[in-house]
Amino acid sequence: MTDRTSSTTRxxxxxxxxxxxxxxxxxxxxxxxxxxxxPIIITTIYAFNAGDSALVWKGFSLRWFGEVAxxxxxxxxxxxxxxxAIVATxxxxxxxxxxxxxxxxxxxxxxxxxxxxxxxPLVIPEIVLAVAxxxxxxxxxxPPGMTALMLAHASFCIPFALMPIRAxxxxxxxxxxxxxxxxxxxxxxxxxxxxxxxxxxxIISGAILAFVISLDDFIIxxxxxxxxxxxxxxxxxxxxxxxASPAVNVVATLLLVLAxxxxxxxxxxxxxxxxxxx
Length: 278
Prior knowledge:
Helix content is about 75%, strand content about 0%.
């Protein structure tokens, strides 16, 4: 009787849905993947083009990698973007950690309101943020340049750094902190020995997301850039306006490699940490 019941249960169990069960979704997915990744592959290939055009193949060469390395203005824009992204990432990540820990002590309504205010830049059009930021720095007498760019990037990177950190904190529950309290840990000891180590995966994810968002930003950077403080996206846009050059493909390829390396290192570290705690 038991075998018959289990057999019936197996027969009547709902079948897992597969992609082929949704007509047209498979074809749309393939088209979307092609549209997304084929341009990246083409850009990478044409970074090794020997010709002067970004889209006309003239043979394999590393010529444009040397041209990029010797372009002082381009290297300066890379350094400007890195400085801005590093400062914005540090400020946004530290603020997000403090906010995530503080907002957990608020009532549900107060927590929701505070989070909604802080994450509002995620839904506000970036052009609106750019115009408002430019008007604000003019109002307080701060000229466009490095300081304005760092402040603006740190501000709009906070929601991106906050999301993984807050998600990680919510996933931990309260048992770890209750156990630390029962063992007599002070607030500082709990933060240093319990909270911070447990939040490391969320902190790393939030910091990487903030760094990439800052490095990639164009609209706000274009509004706040100045002579001597031109971020890389703004500089690349000016290059494209003068004519598509393989140098643009080289920079895009190097940024892609950087993203892959950072993502791989982060993944391996998280896997090692998971194995250690398993």
